[in-house]
Automatic annotation (TrEMBL):
Keywords recorded for this protein, A-Z: ATP-binding, Ligase, Nucleotide-binding, Purine biosynthesis
Native organism: Gluconobacter vitians
HAMAP family for the chain: GARS (MF_00138)
Family statement: Belongs to the GARS family.
Gene Ontology molecular function: any one: phosphoribosylamine-glycine ligase activity
Protein name per the record: Phosphoribosylamine--glycine ligase
EC numbers: 6.3.4.13
Length: 409
């Protein structure tokens, strides 16, 4: 099969690594890709949200399957354009991608499907939103209703912080109660009203140690999460995913692709935080380094609406992904710093390094984003995986790198 992988982050580098192992792969292209992916894929200078350009390239190169990594092209209608061109795409339509494209849409679907979630309100104007948080108090969660690249959620610890978030994020907004508990990420392959469990991870969203500082796109993840084994994951699918899929079918906008359900394990039971319509980042990196199955036939069948091959097998190992970000992330990350030592890091047993915000300048690898690299490790125990990941991270030399020291604790 000739495959076009869309995206340029650590998630896409991990997907590319898995796809490149498939005996059924003839050619792998990545648009736009990143320097780390160049060893397993041919890089294509097309932006991930250039839907028309991606489809044209796929037609010219006789692509058999498009694998979307990030959410933006899906929300922009990539799967719809692929369907019109007769190109299989392993992702949902624009209408179904609203599950990530609109927080209010997700809340409406969850309420209609009887899925437990936080109490919420949607606001179109600033004044009523501010009046609402003053009346409700803090902590309280402020969410941009549309896509925000992982920077559209503020867990405000004070009314003043909530008001600042309302003014900064702009309208429309969803404001909801702050759920308390352990957060987990649940993944499944889905088609129409059916879902097959992939697995679960636990993401660390806050920038600083001890879950302090601003929310980010994710600073690290572990898989599998403790106290959330396969039996609990299957039960969570019955509560959080399958009713949503049935509601989407009822609305005439069935979902096909990978669903990521962000859950909070509260004292009252699991509650839905959000849906994402693709693999998470950095959760995908932690999950996929444990994958034993051939990913290509799974995604190819999924693009045709079949879950026949979707029972993916993972190793029993524990894994961790550790994000190395640029100083100043998430607001104003420093760019241009020279990076070295990735080869030394990957010489550590069980360690893989995935690129995200990197580029080559005159043959020199430099930082070109907020989340720049993801150092991953797998081992027989969580403690050993954590030790190896931090050993790998310490081998990478880069003046502006920052990372949490408590991922996996």
């Amino acid at each position: 099969m000739r495959v076009l992988l869309v995206g340029s982050g650590g998630r896409e580098h991990a997907l590319a690594t898995c796809l490149a192992r498939s005996p059924g792969l003839t050619a792998l292209y990545a648009a736009p890709g990143n320097p780390g992916m160049a060893s397993v894929a041919t890089l294509v200078p097309l932006k991930a949200d250039d839907v028309a350009g991606l489809v044209q390239f796929a037609q010219e190169q006789k692509i058999d399957l498009i694998v979307p990594g990030p959410e933006a092209p899906l929300v922009a209608g990539l799967a719809d354009a692929c369907a019109e061109a007769g190109i299989p795409c392993a992702g949902p339509t624009k209408a179904a991608a609203l599950l990530e494209g609109s927080k209010a849409f997700t809340k409406d679907v969850a309420d209609a499907a009887g899925i437990p979630t936080a109490r919420w309100e949607r606001f179109e104007e600033e004044a009523p939103a501010i009046e609402f948080v003053r009346r409700r108090g803090a902590p309280i969660v402020i969410k941009a209703d549309g896509l925000a690249g992982g920077k559209g959620v503020v867990v405000a610890q004070s009314v003043e912080e909530a008001e600042d978030a309302i003014r900064r994020l702009g309208m429309p907004l969803v404001i909801e109660e702050c759920l308390v508990g352990e957060e987990v990420s649940l993944f499944a392959f889905c088609s129409d009203d059916k879902a097959v469990l992939i697995g679960a991870a636990r993401d660390h969203k806050r920038l600083g140690d001890g879950d302090t500082g601003p929310n980010t796109g994710g600073m690290g993840a572990i898989s599998p999460p403790p106290a959330f084994g396969r039996e609990m994951q299957e039960k969570a699918l019955d509560i959080m995913v399958r009713p949503m899929l049935a509601e989407m079918v009822r609305r005439g906008t069935p979902f096909r692709g990978v669903i990521f359900a962000g859950l909070m394990l509260t004292s009252e039971g699991p509650k839905l935080i959000e849906y994402n319509v693709r693999f998470g980042d950095p959760e995908a990196q932690a999950l996929l380094i444990r994958l034993k199955s051939d990913l290509l036939p799974i995604l190819a069948a999924l693009a045709q609406g079949s879950l026949e091959h979707a029972a993916a097998e993972f190793s029993d190992e524990h894994s961790i992904s550790l994000v190395l970000a640029a100083n100043g992330y998430p607001d104003a990350p420093k760019k241009g710093g020279r990076i070295s030592g990735i080869e030394r890091a990957e010489a550590v047993p069980g360690v893989s390094v995935f690129h995200a915000g990197t580029k080559l300048v005159d043959g020199i690898l430099v930082a070109d984003g907020g989340r720049v690299l993801t150092v991953c490790a797998k081992a027989a125990t969580p403690e050993e995986a954590r030790k190896l990941a931090y050993e790998g991270a310490s081998a990478i030399q880069w003046e502006d790198k920052i990372f949490r020291s408590d991922i996996g604790l």
